[in-house]
C-alpha cells in the first residue's frame, strides 16, 4: 500500500513473445511472509529456507499470474525467465497463492511473482510483524530488538497496517462523505416536494373529498386514494432513477471497493429507502384528507 511497486519483463518457457508482452509484478520475501500477511497458499508449496543462492531458482505466483499466462493449465512446475534474452535464467514455479491488492484497494490484482530473498537479495526490505498485542507494545519491542542487533540501524516508517490502509482511503472517504451529504439533502428535498405537492392537491380537492365522504366513502378509502396517487409518482421516479443509475454508475465505479457500481442489493436498499420516505410524505396529507368534515368541505369555495 505504499503506492509503488516493481515489475519485470519475463519469458515463458516454450513461447515466443514480443518485448513487454509478458510482464509480472515482483516481490522479494523471506521468513513467514505469507502467514504474516494472511495470504492463502492454494497449491504447491511455500518458499522454504532451503531455497538458497546455491539451489535452483524458484518462485511462488498468484492466481492472476496462473490464470493469465497459463489458462486451463497447472502452473506449478512451469518455468519462466527474466527478460526476453535467448538464454534467460529460468525460475521454476513451486506454488500458487491467493491474489492480494498490493498498490491500492481500488486496483485489481496483477500477475505477481514472489522470490526468496536468499536468491534475489535486496539492499533494503520491509519488516512485517503480526501480533495480537497493542501496536504501541509491539512497536517498542521491535525497536528494542533491532537496537540489540545493530544500534546504528535506523528504523523508519513504523506503522500499523490498518493506519496504512486508512491513509489510502482518506480521499475516497471524503468524496463519499460529500456524496452522502448531498444525497441526504436530495432525499429531504424530495420528501418535502412530495409532501407539498400532495398537500396542495388535497387542498384543491377538498370539495371532491367532501362529496365522496358525504356519499359514504370510508376514511380508509380516502387515505388509499391520496397515498396511491403519490406512490404512483414515486414509483415512476424510482424507475427513472434506476435507469439513470445504471447508465451513470460507472462514473463512481473507481471510488468503490467491495461493491459494484451496479450492485443489486444496494439498488434494492436505496429504492426501499426512497419509497419508504415517499410513503411517509404521502401518508400525512392523506390522513389530513380523511378527517375532512363533509359539511365544511361542501360549503368551501
Please describe the structure with a list of short key phrases separated by commas or semicolons.
301 residues; alpha+beta; 3 domains; 6-stranded mixed beta barrel; 8 helices; elongated
Overview of the molecule:
The chain is elongated, with a radius of gyration of 32 Å. Helix 4 runs parallel beside helix 7 and helix 6 runs antiparallel to helix 7. The chain has 8 helices and 7 strands, in the order E-E-H-E-E-H-E-E-E-H-H-H-H-H-H. The protein has a 6-stranded mixed beta barrel. The protein folds into 3 domains: 121 residues, no CATH class; 29 residues, no CATH class; 132 residues, no CATH class. 48% of the residues lie in helices and 13% in strands. By secondary structure, the protein is an alpha+beta fold. A hairpin with a 7-residue loop joins strand 5 and strand 6.
Amino acid at each position: 500500500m505504499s503506492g509503488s511497486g516493481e515489475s519485470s519483463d519475463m519469458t515463458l518457457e516454450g513461447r515466443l513473445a514480443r518485448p513487454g508482452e509478458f510482464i509480472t509484478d515482483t516481490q522479494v520475501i523471506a521468513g513467514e511472509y505469507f502467514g504474516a500477511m494472511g495470504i492463502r497458499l492454494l497449491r504447491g508449496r511455500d518458499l522454504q529456507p532451503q531455497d538458497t543462492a546455491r539451489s535452483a531458482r524458484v518462485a511462488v505466483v498468484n492466481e492472476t499470474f496462473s490464470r493469465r499466462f497459463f489458462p486451463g493449465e497447472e502452473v506449478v512446475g512451469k518455468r519462466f525467465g527474466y527478460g526476453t534474452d535467448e538464454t534467460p535464467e529460468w525460475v521454476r514455479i513451486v506454488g500458487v497463492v491467493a491474489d492480494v491488492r498490493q498498490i491500492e484497494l481500488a486496483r485489481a490484482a496483477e500477475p505477481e511473482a514472489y522470490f526468496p530473498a536468499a536468491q534475489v537479495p535486496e539492499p533494503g526490505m520491509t519488516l512485517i510483524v503480526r501480533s495480537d498485542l497493542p501496536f504501541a507494545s509491539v512497536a517498542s519491542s521491535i525497536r528494542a530488538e533491532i537496537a540489540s542487533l545493530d544500534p546504528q540501524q535506523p528504523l523508519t516508517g513504523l506503522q500499523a497496517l490498518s493506519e496504512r490502509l486508512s491513509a489510502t482511503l482518506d480521499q475516497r472517504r471524503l468524496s463519499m462523505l460529500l456524496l452522502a451529504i448531498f444525497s441526504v439533502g436530495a432525499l429531504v428535498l424530495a420528501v418535502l416536494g412530495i409532501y407539498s405537492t400532495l398537500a396542495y392537491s388535497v387542498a384543491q380537492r377538498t370539495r371532491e373529498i367532501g362529496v365522496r365522504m358525504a356519499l359514504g366513502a370510508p376514511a380508509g378509502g380516502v387515505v388509499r386514494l391520496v397515498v396511491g396517487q403519490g406512490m404512483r409518482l414515486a414509483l415512476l421516479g424510482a424507475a427513472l432513477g434506476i435507469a439513470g443509475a445504471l447508465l451513470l454508475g460507472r462514473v463512481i465505479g473507481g471510488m468503490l471497493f467491495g461493491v459494484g457500481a451496479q450492485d443489486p442489493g444496494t439498488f434494492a436498499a436505496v429504492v426501499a429507502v426512497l419509497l419508504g420516505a415517499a410513503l411517509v410524505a404521502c401518508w400525512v396529507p392523506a390522513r389530513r384528507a380523511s378527517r375532512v368534515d363533509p359539511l365544511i368541505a361542501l360549503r368551501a369555495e
